[in-house]
Design a protein that fits this description.
The protein is an all-alpha fold. The protein has one helix at residues 6-39. The chain starts with 5 loop residues before the first helix and ends in an 11-residue tail after the last helix.
Length: 50
């Protein structure tokens, strides 16, 4: 029977959660920059959401 090492899975989950948090931070930075560009009248702010 195939054995699963729960500790290894927990570590993997922790690493993936940390990666998700980093990605959320990057997304927030991009959204803030886009809003700032819109306020300044920049051409990068189209206002469309994906």
């Amino acid at each position: 029977m195939y054995q699963i090492d729960l500790r290894e899975l927990e570590l993997r989950v922790d690493r993936l959660q940390a990666e998700i948090e980093r990605a959320k931070g990057e997304l927030l930075e991009v959204e803030v920059a886009r809003q700032e560009a819109a306020v300044r009248g920049g051409s990068d702010a189209r206002g469309d959401k994906h």
